[in-house]
Amino acid sequence: MTDVRADMPRPDGGGEGSGDDRVDDVQKMSTAPSQVDDASAVVGIGVVGWLRWAWRTLTSMRTALILLFLLAVASSVGSFFPQRGSNPIRVTDYIANDPKGKLLDRFGIFDVFASPWFAAIYLLLFVSLAGCVLPRSRQHWRAVRSRPPSAPRNLTRLPEHRVIDAPEDTAPQSTLDSAETWLRGARWRVDTTTYDGRTGSVAAEKGYSRETGNLLFHVALLGMLLAIAYGSLYGFKGTVIVREGSSFADSRSQFDSFNPGAAFDPESLPPFSFTLNAFHADYQRGGAQNGAAREFSADVTVVRAPGATPTKQTIQVNDPLVIGGVKAFLVGHGYAPTITIKDATGAVVFHDSVVFLPQDGNFTSTGVVKAPDTVPQIGLQGIFLPTTSIDPVTGPTSTFPAPDFPEVFIGAFVGDLGLDAGRPQSVYKLDTSKMTRIGKEQLAAGQVWELPGGHGTVTLDGYVQWASFSVARDPGKELALLAALVAISGLSLSLLVRRRRIWVRVSTDDMGVTVVEVAGLTRSEHTSVAEEVDELAGSLGTTVSRTTASLDV
Question: DSSP labels for 314-345?
């Protein structure tokens, strides 16, 4: 930037002067760096410099806050899309029915917390916090062990300043000793400079726990990240659907989906099992919240170890089954219509309760049935309605989640189910590319449908309910709880504790007049140390001068 005085009249009366003179003046008075013609004088920071810059940027508080925000955004993705770890059925249905499903799955949207991009944010946040907090902790430790700063030269410029009229028979050193005793009694950190005939002082500081609390909060965040990582490495999470009357054994092959940690040992699974005896659901009838769920519970018979005596237990939403550190949570339910298919000869080729997946809050549910042992093979696509209603525009739908008028609407297909091709198929989807539709029917419990073309019969025998359970073990939850408690404690300290300093100075001038001063300041905004300064001044004598600044120094 060029100094504006270059365009002012010259002091020798020469006016603005010639163009050359003005250029010389500008060059002499300019504050801009001179141009370097030698290009070789420009030196880069090198690889080490770039690495140092990258480390400082990563470990800055701004970067940590940005990464924390990105982690929150990434975690919220898991709440907008179904996750394999908690609801694999909805994930399968989403991928099958949404054109964007496969693309989203490729980017790990349905398994956010195990995706590489989430792990990258997680690890960068951990390194950023560690690189930020650990050096600050060392600095704080040195500050706590250091002496309080000595008194400033001019105490009158501090926010709170008092001049004390001490008793005439009180020696200067005695005044300093009294101030030290009062401050130590109030749990201040104190450092005293002995009176040398002209001056002596007491320096005191209090409120280091404010910074301690701040560091504890950030260390607790590191502990939380470690707890999550430990639980992810050594824990597991699986889901399973169990129909009424069916059983589940805690082995890997029994799960519908199973997500173990990288260091998980399958032999650590406790060998328990349970049978779902009955599932109970209660819904509100009438009012603004008609159909809202009021109670879910699953009555089970549990065998906690091979050969152990079976015991009965009720699993509810917030009351899981707990065995050996493994918890089985009740997370969902639905209906499974019981269907019997007979071929043209009258032989039973299929008889089972088939899980249908809910599509709305009133449990309009869809499912498929496959009978590969007939010639030709038979496939059914169905809609189960707990409380049936047929709308002239939208068609059949359920108007209430409870099974008040249960019916099933079935479409029948014959042909090749595609099961012999060796490609895995979803049990909730029917491949009709090589099949022919032969008809559709509406069935209530006990009704029989004669399939067109003499292909046999389909009977709706009734229904059972099913419940889905999330079975998981998280060995890091205790550490996470401890980290949360430490974080709350640290945050409370950083918000409630005030960092403040007080000085007492006794000085004697050349005339032999002794002056006692008390001054203080606080390092926190919107707080004051005036009350403590007044109490200390009152213990030393009578205040004869009082100064209170409007701003902290």
Answer: EEETTB-EEETTEEEEEEEEEEEEEEEEE-TT
